[in-house]
Specification:
Blueprint: H1 3-13, E1 15-16, E2 29-32, H2 41-44, E3 45-53, E4 63-68, E5 73-77, E6 81-83, H3 86-93, E7 108-110, E8 116-118, E9 121-123
Parallel strand pairs: 3-9
Antiparallel strand pairs: 1-6, 2-3, 2-6, 3-4, 4-5, 7-8
Helix pairs in contact: 1-3
């Protein structure tokens, strides 16, 4: 299967996630709905490295750091996510330059405002959106 076919299959079989993201585990493969980074496999599919949990209604102000297939890490926010179904995970990961087994457990991630955090679920600081 090529990248487009894998993306379409993942979209067809995707599993809805609650906006609070409470059921998400580190390295879960996610599909971003209406991604602020753009749609399609390259921009909307990634595995979760970190969630910065905000206090907004139903998690509307969470920041979600995803590792994308090209190895880049991008912050997604104010959007819905879906989980990649188990049947599609191996095919999706086959397009990734970096996979969860390559990740460091003490990876420090930086939000667009320059705030560094280590860990999977961390509190979103007020100045992350200023």
């Amino acid at each position: 299967m090529n990248e487009k076919e894998v993306y379409l299959s993942a979209m067809e079989n995707r599993e809805r996630i609650d906006f609070s993201l409470k059921g998400i585990e580190q390295y879960d493969l996610l599909l971003a709905a209406y991604s602020s980074c753009g749609d399609g496999f390259a921009n909307a599919v990634g595995y979760c490295l970190q969630i910065r949990e905000g206090d907004g209604e139903v998690g509307s102000d969470n920041q979600v750091f995803l590792r994308h297939a090209d190895g880049s890490i991008r912050v997604h926010h104010q959007q819905a996510f879906y989980r990649v179904a188990d049947k599609d995970k191996a095919q999706v990961l086959s397009f990734f330059e970096t996979t969860p087994k390559d990740e460091s457990i003490d990876l420090e991630l930086t939000c667009p405002n320059g705030i560094n955090e280590v860990g999977f679920r961390v509190k979103l600081r007020n100045d992350c959106y200023s």
